[in-house]
Amino acid sequence: MTVPQIPRNDAARKQSSAPYLVPLLVGGLVAVALGVYGREHTPTGYAVGPAGFSGAQAMKSWLATGAFVLAIVQVISALAMYGKIPGLQAPPWTGTLHRWSGRLAFVLSVPVAFHCLYALGAQFDVPRVLVHSLLGTFFYGVFVAKMLSLPKRDLPGWTLPVLGGLAFTALTGLWLTSSFWFFTTFGITF
Fold first, then answer.
1. Distant-in-sequence, close-in-space partners of 60: CB < 8 Å, separation ≥ 6
2. What is the pTM of this model?
């Protein structure tokens, strides 16, 4: 005997999806708050000491490059965990590699973001810098949304890969508009 399904009304359907929208809303608020702060804060010109580097730009370029390389590790380890690399069975430590490479990438990005926001602020007068500023705020918003979505076990299966892919895409754009630009303009300096 089958139990008849009771159709759910639209209000119940909307209410059940509300908890999944919270990470997106919080991430959006973080992105907007960073953008507003970066735009309204008077840049100081100096924020983080470039210990071991020739200057702040070199330090930021190398830390961002480290974060970008770790983000590539993130993508490869995620593909391995989801079984998306043909002929490769993910070793048992792949999840640990994924988590720690993400943590380290985030740690490397913090002094870069702090320097960008505090010393330089969000700038919209040069197209490269405009794109960089927007990608920076977007990256941290998506990162927050992904981190808040992790404990939710009943999310659709595409949620974390999409958020992770957006974070990787934003970080790639950030690297191209900063580190790559710096290295190709001023050379590879420390």
1. 111, 112, 115, 116, 178, 179, 182
2. 0.86
